[in-house]
Amino acid sequence: MLEKTKISDPELYSIVEAELHRQEKNIEMIASESTVPIEIMELSGSIFTNKTLEGYPGKRYQQGSENADKLEIEAINRAKQLFGCEHINIQPYSGSTANYCVYSTVLEKDDTILSMKLDQGGHLSHGSKANFIHNFYNFVHYPISMDTEQIDYDILEEMAHEYKPKLIIAGGSAYPRLIDYKRISDIAKANNAYLMVDAAHIIGLIAAKVIPSPVPYADFVTASTTKTIAGPRAGLVMCKKEFAKKLDKGVFPGCLGSMHLTTMAAKCWLFRHCASEEFKKTMEQVLLNAKCLGNELENFGFRLVSGGTDTHLLLVDLREKNITGHDLDETLNKIGLTVNKNQIPGDPLGPNETSGIRIGTTATTQRGMKEEQMKEIAEIINLAAENINNSDILNNLKERVNKLSSEFPLYSEEDFKYLNVK
């Protein structure tokens, strides 16, 4: 796949090759990551790279769009069938840009948005002061219950009545529980607000129909096409038919410029793949693995935020282990197990230290791992946390990780040959 690059730029090729070997040897458990099929990589670098195009099928600003039109129409039809949505725009470049496109569609500057706070499960693009978007709108954050560490719908309802938001956002980047979309939809309607669900993390589970879909209840559903859905680095926005024209105008020319046809081609392939029984079975196992891993971690004395998970994602409180998220994720990385530090609700530590880690089971499941391997991974995490300065034990744990990764390869031998690295 990189034969020409290997000859023309050996230095660059060696970096790409090293990254593939890192992924092959490590066990990836960052909740926002997955392993894409070879077809996604092929299409993400296809001949469509050469084509610049703006607008929509039949209404382009450049000639030579006949094949791109067919591509976009086919991708849209596949996506609508997959998600059961009335309208979808597949031009956004990422989940965050998909969110910005919705904002530009229905909001005016300084309108009020009600969203979840970053350190309670939300996302940077939902109004974090670290993100530029907070300068344009009045973001008010609804809290989760500190007793259950889940959304308190009564408080959300009270805040919607008090602040009269133009938009309510549900979903985030570190919320492990299912959301009552109907309840939030009722709250939004009662207060003349739009409802946007950010489904970036769980969109693969939704596509496989292993968890409830927000599509029947939300005015807008945004997502990235990476994470659980394991596609190219891009995004999408679904909406009710009544918002279709307004959304398309909000995407282009309202927010974005020329489209990325290569990732659009990859998305087109992805939407068909996600309708397969193979994908559904993988997503079912993702949920089983997350439950199993969570239970095992609890048996080792870790506390799970909200008491567990309904998705692919676990948020683990490390305070009872007297270790920070920063120290544990660095230690785990050294032995080949990749997670990420993450703040927990009410975290006394900042985002660079944190009292927690976030773990996901998508990439491990894609390699064929099941409950037996989750139990071993939980034991490895526990031993690493309790022996952070013991090099002998950490070296032994690294050998165990290497053994696991070799037993469950990243790609098949045939795929590795195609990637031109073996």
From TrEMBL:
<feature type="binding site">
    <location>
        <begin position="122"/>
        <end position="124"/>
    </location>
    <ligand>
        <name>(6S)-5,6,7,8-tetrahydrofolate</name>
    </ligand>
</feature>
<keyword id="KW-0554">One-carbon metabolism</keyword>
<dbReference type="GO" id="GO:0019264">
    <property type="term" value="P:glycine biosynthetic process from serine"/>
</dbReference>
<dbReference type="InterPro" id="IPR015424">
    <property type="entry name" value="PyrdxlP-dep_Trfase"/>
</dbReference>
<keyword id="KW-0028">Amino-acid biosynthesis</keyword>
<comment type="pathway">
    <text>One-carbon metabolism; tetrahydrofolate interconversion.</text>
</comment>
<keyword id="KW-0663">Pyridoxal phosphate</keyword>
<dbReference type="GO" id="GO:0035999">
    <property type="term" value="P:tetrahydrofolate interconversion"/>
</dbReference>
<dbReference type="GO" id="GO:0030170">
    <property type="term" value="F:pyridoxal phosphate binding"/>
</dbReference>
<dbReference type="InterPro" id="IPR049943">
    <property type="entry name" value="Ser_HO-MeTrfase-like"/>
</dbReference>
<keyword id="KW-0808">Transferase</keyword>
<comment type="similarity">
    <text>Belongs to the SHMT family.</text>
</comment>
<protein>
    <recommendedName>
        <fullName>2-methylserine hydroxymethyltransferase</fullName>
        <ecNumber>2.1.2.7</ecNumber>
    </recommendedName>
</protein>
<feature type="site" description="Plays an important role in substrate specificity">
    <location>
        <position position="226"/>
    </location>
</feature>
<dbReference type="InterPro" id="IPR039429">
    <property type="entry name" value="SHMT-like_dom"/>
</dbReference>
<dbReference type="InterPro" id="IPR015421">
    <property type="entry name" value="PyrdxlP-dep_Trfase_major"/>
</dbReference>
<feature type="modified residue" description="N6-(pyridoxal phosphate)lysine">
    <location>
        <position position="227"/>
    </location>
</feature>
<dbReference type="GO" id="GO:0005829">
    <property type="term" value="C:cytosol"/>
</dbReference>
<feature type="binding site">
    <location>
        <position position="118"/>
    </location>
    <ligand>
        <name>(6S)-5,6,7,8-tetrahydrofolate</name>
    </ligand>
</feature>
<dbReference type="GO" id="GO:0004372">
    <property type="term" value="F:glycine hydroxymethyltransferase activity"/>
</dbReference>
<feature type="domain" description="Serine hydroxymethyltransferase-like">
    <location>
        <begin position="8"/>
        <end position="381"/>
    </location>
</feature>
<dbReference type="GO" id="GO:0050413">
    <property type="term" value="F:D-alanine 2-hydroxymethyltransferase activity"/>
</dbReference>
<dbReference type="InterPro" id="IPR001085">
    <property type="entry name" value="Ser_HO-MeTrfase"/>
</dbReference>
<dbReference type="Pfam" id="PF00464">
    <property type="entry name" value="SHMT"/>
</dbReference>
<dbReference type="InterPro" id="IPR015422">
    <property type="entry name" value="PyrdxlP-dep_Trfase_small"/>
</dbReference>
<keyword id="KW-0963">Cytoplasm</keyword>
<comment type="subunit">
    <text>Homodimer.</text>
</comment>
<comment type="function">
    <text>Catalyzes the reversible interconversion of alpha-methyl-L-serine to D-alanine with tetrahydrofolate (THF) serving as the one-carbon carrier.</text>
</comment>
